[in-house]
Amino acid sequence: MPINLINVSNRLPVTVGEKIRKSSGGLVAALGGLGAEEYQVKWIGWPGATIVDPVRRAETEEVLRREHGCIPVFLSDEETAGHYEGFSNSSIWPLLHYMLNYMRYDPAWWDHYRKVNQRFADKVVEVAQPGDLIWVHDYQLMLLPAMLHDRTPELKIGFFLHTPFPSFETFRCHPKRRELVAGMLGADLVGFHTFGYLRHFRSTVLRLLGLESEITRIRGEDGHVTAMGVFPIGIDARKFEERLDSPEFTRRRDELCASDAGRRVVLSVERMDYTKGILHRLDAIEHFLAGADDRDAIKFIFVSVPSREEVEEYQDLRAEVEARVGRINGEYATLSSSPIRFIHGSVNFTDLCALYASADVGLVTPLIDGMNLVAKEYIACQREHDGVLILSEFAGAAEELSNALLVNPYDSRAVAQTLVDALSMTKEERRASNQAMRERVMRYDAQHWARVFIQHLIATAEAAPFASDRIENVVAQLRQAAGKPIAVFIDYDGTLREIEREPDAAKPTAAIYALLQQLSDVQNLDVTIISGRKSSDLERWFSGMPFNLVAEHGASLRRRGQREWADMVRNITLNWKDELREVLHLHEQSTPGSFVEEKRTSLVWHYRKTDPEFGAWKAHQLVDELGALMANEPVTIRHGRKIVEATAAQISKGAAVRRLIEEKTYAVVLCAGDDQTDESMFEAETPNLISIKVGREPSRAKYRLRDPAEFRKFLTEALLETSTM
Ligand code: GDG
Fold first, then answer.
1. Pairing of strands 486-490, 361-364
2. Residue 375 is inside which H or E element, if any?
């Protein structure tokens, strides 16, 4: 059975005009080459034209679906202006490329961006069937993964960013920085071209959202795991190879060689974009020409494909580039030639191959570039002629094409000198450096890239099942027990109440008090609030309630109706605390913002307010240190949410539950919790146990609810309603 893949990108791989035209490009090639027996690919995206008439829309939609496997998201002119030209290309594109001087922001663009992402989400939800894979592309759709995940958590969602991801210091400048990264985290897998971008993303997520991560995994507050990976995109190698074999290629290449006979040709191909370093390159060319003995011996060819012409910065760039080219040509032209042949337009694919193949030097000097396919394509076309690639070290491709002559594009004199060096390399030198690069470029092509990404997406952990579809079982079990004693153990933070950044802020809300009040009215229900908090917190919030209170993960108990707290475990050994306290205080001193909290049976080092990266690193260090130090002591060391906690090993919530349920015969024992410390409750060996995990982390619990809100709803429905029967 083929796997259904829904590919979601801003643009469909076709453009609707008078006729429907297929577009080419890396993505189309990558997915086109996947093989129909393996994958059934559908596309969702904007069709490239505004169609207002509903009849024409319906007709176009039908043709696109039937003949091209494409599902259009129709947008109005206003929407594309706000979403694409505005927010995508004038706000996030410069941000992601470190070009804050070009970054603009308009709240109306943001509204359009959100709305258009929402429109895409509607379409995906409408089209997707259970088991489909969803692959979302690029910076125009950064909110889409979270929108989809919130609506349909069982969908497998991949997100690939084709641009760089900048450092936190840059990313933090955007007014919607948090929303954008949170949007990406809705995906099950997020892919980047290089490890550098992945590293920046992790550090940004940590600093903006406070979420610590492993190198390839981030777990959100709700337990959802986003895997991350490095997937350098490749070119459509087969298409290049085939064209290089064709007679029309040979003819065009020979024509080009003949027209520039006696000259060395230096080629640059790119979209007209300020990230591509065109003006800096013109500086380098001026330096080169100023020092050149024979200006007729060299020709620079620029293919500058018109791009984003609605955006002001692009219009300005074009004007400036054209003026500079004019000036250089005026200054350095001879009677027989002028140095730069500038094409503001695109060339057909055969001509592109012929240009690549005949150019002595490929001069690819973006100031920054996610990958840069032109560099790889130039190498692919060096099958017979051994040209030299000069490549910016700031292109993602530089990591793979390390045999190229790597340059800093901002250093125009050095680029000019590298050009001199390139032109004086021997054939053997050129061959030797190109061979390994060409093998790599041809092997790790676009299809390989897509296949690897999809395999990783399939391999991401299965989405955890939710109890909501099995809740009837619990309700039925409770119904059967109606009238008989039921024990209910409820963890507080993250289970009954949402987690807050500041623990003191997580006070019970009026709705929670109302719910607890209702629970306390239910006959035969023994409720215990069981928490890692200190007894004083529990007393402050729940002293008026007819519940048992268990504090410090099961260390002490205040029975319903009593005022005194009692130890739940006899003979707790606590003499390890002195040594441990000292270590924690040393850590507190060396980690600004951290502090030590002392509970009766445990010690906790909190690092929520530290520099997040430094704090996380120190926490790992502390866990290792304490593990070694306390190896022979009855102490459990736990790395929790922004805390490292050492607790007397005899104490656990599970032990507390066991003790309380021994005292009476219960028809049902219901335990609910959200974190690692609650797992011991789920192991209680009682045949009538109902264990409920709140959140998405792996758990031994039999049932699962998404978040505290869902848990409260469950309590209302399951306990209150069954009790009134
Ligand atoms: C983004 C990221 C990342 C160009 N001129 C002609 C022409 N082209 C084709 C090239 C190449 C493509 O356009 C340009 O791709 P790049 O990768 O160089 O750059 P972006 O357009 O900025 O792409 C980039 C990429 O996404 C993929 O993830 O590498 O970093 O910015 O394929 O061949 N094709 C034809 N005539 C032209 O005149 N036929």
1. unpaired
2. helix 373-380
470 against 582, higher pLDDT = 582
| Ligand 1 pocket test, candidate residues 275, 348, 374, 389, most atoms within 8 A of CB | 374
Structure tokens at 295: 């200006």
The least confident of 138-142, 265-269, 509-513, 636-640 is 636-640
List CB contacts of 394: < 8 A, sequence separation 6 or more: 366, 367, 368, 369, 408, 409
* Cβ neighbour number for residue 610 with a 10 Å cutoff: 19
Torsion of CA 645, 648, 652, 657, to 10 degrees: -140
Ligand 1 center–CA 271 separation, angstroms: 7
Measured distance CA(411)–CA(455) in Å, rounded: 41
Atom of ligand 1 nearest to the CA of 373: 17
Amino acid at residue number 227: A
First to last CA, the chain: 49
pLDDT at residue 462, rounded to an integer: 58
Measure the CA–CA gap between 585 and 623, rounded to whole angstroms.
14
Candidate from 372, 401, 449 with most ligand 1 atoms within 8 A of CB, to mutate: 372
Q: 416 in ligand 1 pocket by Cβ < 6 Å?
A: no
Contact yes or no for 234/401 (Cβ under 8 A): no
Give the pair of three-digit tokens for residue 240: 């290049």
What gap in Å lies between CA 194 and CA 160, rounded to an integer?
Answer: 12
In this structure, what token pair is assigned to residue 721? Answer: 């309603």
233: Cβ below 6 Å to ligand 1?
Answer: yes
Q: Which strand ranges, in their side-by-side order, compose the sheet holding 3-11? A: 70-72, 39-46, 3-11, 133-137, 156-160, 189-192, 225-230, 217-219, 213-214
Q: Is 491 noted as a catalytic residue in this protein?
A: yes
Q: Which atom of ligand 1 is nearest to the CA of 160?
A: 28
Average confidence (pLDDT) over 286-295: 94
Question: 269 alpha carbon to ligand 1 midpoint, in Å?
Answer: 8
Q: Convert the pLDDT of each residue in 7-32 to its tens digit.
A: 999 999 998 888 888 876 667 767 77
- Which residues, other chains included, contact 486 with Cβ-Cβ below 8 Å and sequence gap of 6+? 478, 524, 525, 526, 666, 667, 668, 669, 670, 719
Among 138, 273, 491, 678, the active-site one is 491
Q: Which residue has the higher pLDDT, 351 or 35?
A: 351
- Give the span between the Cα atoms of 422 and 404, in whole angstroms: 10
Secondary structure class of 410 (helix, strand, coil):
coil
